[in-house]
Amino acid sequence: MTAFLGTPSALGMSEDARFGLSRVVTLPGPFALDGGAVLAAVDIAYETYGTLNAERSNAVLICHALTGDHHVASDHPRTGKPGWWTRMVGPGQPVDPARHFIVCANVLGSCMGSSGPASVDPATGRPYAMRFPVITLRDMARAQALLMDHLGVRVLLAVVGGSMGGMQVLEWAATYPDRVRSAVVIASAARHSAQNIAFHEVGRQAIMADPNWREGEYYGPGDVPPTAGLAVARMAAHITYLSEAGLTEKFGRRLQARETKSFGFDADFQVESYLRHQGISFTDRFDANSYLYITRAMDYFDLAEEHGGRLANAFAGSATRFCLVSFDSDWLYPTSESRAIVHALNAAGAAASFVELSSPFGHDAFLLDVPELNRVVDGFLRAVAA
């Protein structure tokens, strides 16, 4: 399928129809990847909200995190749940379709419509599975740039993202400095630490240890995907998204409602039941091979290494305005990671503002109800637009 080219109003769409337009576009190749492989073409699934103005100056790109997708502010077609960032994107929110032309694209390598391991390899007529080439976060940004070209957007008012989304924002600012007026990086880092890589490896090993994984070949009729391994991977990762204080407040050591302890493999503690639910529900909407590819892309990410080993080099001469936000309870990407980026921006002479917010929610705070985050982002975007 191909996406619309132009604005919804130019196509005679109603005011209501401009919110949450979902499309898949096939972008012709060849598309060269950092790893040396070449894709003949690239499918990108995306949603748009609002209208591109006559000056084409109000476009905002939202970059999603590891387990996110392009359904940023509209109901998910598989789960029926609201979009993953309705607290930030939507009418009256900091990123507002009344003021902005909002684009959110499913990343390259994912499983919600963009090219990835489950896509059909044109050379064989079968799903790529583990024959899909290795990808990087810079590859994801390049694919998004092609989408922006397709939509007629040369310069973005802002690129906004949290976690892995924030890493993509940094890639955009470093790779396309002349196309990004402002960059909002939330709860993120310029590279993965050894601890980050270690947690991802636990998840990958859980998937590959599932007998249903079968070296990634589980897309055939009647095949059962490795849901058990994927669920464990999600459980392990989800622990890193939370804080000890948040878990203690929400669950403590409270037991499930039953008369006696099971002393077996049932979920005795409420926190066990919560994690199991998180794992099982995740398998309804995500592909195990995509999880392997995207976590690996995050682990490879090292913006300084891409620019001669010095992070400031990535932003040399940049006219982009940066806003960085961290959370005091985030131990996955702690405030020290954001400060390192700010120091590099200062060394490069780039305009940067930074704030650490207080929240009990850990890394997931950027997705949850933190009103101060909205005030920071809203104020920053309004200043940039002005």
From TrEMBL:
GO MF term list: homoserine O-acetyltransferase activity
Source superkingdom: Bacteria
Residues binding substrate: 234, 364
Catalytic reactions on record: L-homoserine + acetyl-CoA = O-acetyl-L-homoserine + CoA
Subunit relationships: Homodimer.
Family designation: Belongs to the AB hydrolase superfamily. MetX family.
Entry function: Transfers an acetyl group from acetyl-CoA to L-homoserine, forming acetyl-L-homoserine.
Protein name, UniProt field: Homoserine O-acetyltransferase
Origin species: Sphingomonas prati
Taxonomic lineage of the native organism: Bacteria, Pseudomonadati, Pseudomonadota, Alphaproteobacteria, Sphingomonadales
